[in-house]
Amino acid sequence: MPVKKETEPKPEIAKVEKKLKTPVKSVKDEPLAKAGKRSAKAVKEQVEKEEKEARKATAIEQKQEAKPVKTVKPAKSRLERRSKTYREKAKLLEKDKVYSLSEASALVKKTSTTKFDASVEVHINLNIDPKHADQNIRDTLSLPSGTGKKQTVAVLSDNDSEATKAGADIVGKENIFALLDKGKLDFDILIASPSIMPELGKYARVLGPRGLMPSPKSGTVTTDIAKAVAEAKAGRVEYRVDSSGIVHLAIGKVSFSEADLSSNIDAVLTSIKSNKPASVKGAYIKSVYLTSTMGPSIKIDIANL
Known about the structure:
Blueprint: H1 11-20, H2 40-66, H3 84-90, H4 101-110, E1 119-126, E2 138-142, E3 153-156, H5 160-166, E4 170-171, H6 173-181, E5 189-192, H7 197-200, H8 204-207, H9 225-234, E6 236-240, E7 246-253, H10 258-274, E8 285-292, E9 298-300
Parallel strand pairs: 3-4, 3-5
Antiparallel strand pairs: 1-7, 1-8, 2-6, 8-9
């Protein structure tokens, strides 16, 4: 068979190679076309594009090499991000130590970081699932030493004089309904007689989200108005577990004595223990912490509670 002679490079290819000073790939194996992707013009443009991208990549590499490397500072701990006052107060607590109730009551007064009379809060983590109806714990109780907060009590009853005599701050259906129509909730507790509850139903959307809707379970729907007002003024509080099964409750002020704080915490724990669901197995109370407003938390030894 006759052997095919290798064809000489076309003049167009030679011109492109000479101008770019680099051999044009793929054009030696495939003949150039008059037009299209394999034409001399198209090959030239493709080579120029590749060279431009190569120069761009080289410039980026050189820029990155010349750029000084930033030193990454280690992230600060949660305690280091706190204020100077908080860090000083936190030094009074020993890390990973659990305190007795009396020790915690004394320390919570010393670790307060505010200039005002801060509230003292107790946070109790329970081994429950609030999604189950029988484990959605909720109750009211009167704190032996009060809350330290002046409560504004409004009363809806058929006998305004009785409510006023008992110490209610706002009385009268007309006055209270006028406030509710304007969206003004200038009271902390609302007590109502059972006979007035049907009239109060239309304000459920205003009172409900703020926890002010009277209910028999919380003791704010009653015929004994005088007793309800006296308890509310003395320090009646309501608690309810959140979605994580934790009870958050203010039980006094930093200005309270250690004995008063301890008695209030005891009352809360007694109430919670009495509401233990029958379906809960194992340890009921997982942890108890005591803290002041914006102060460090103190873990309480639950073994001796």
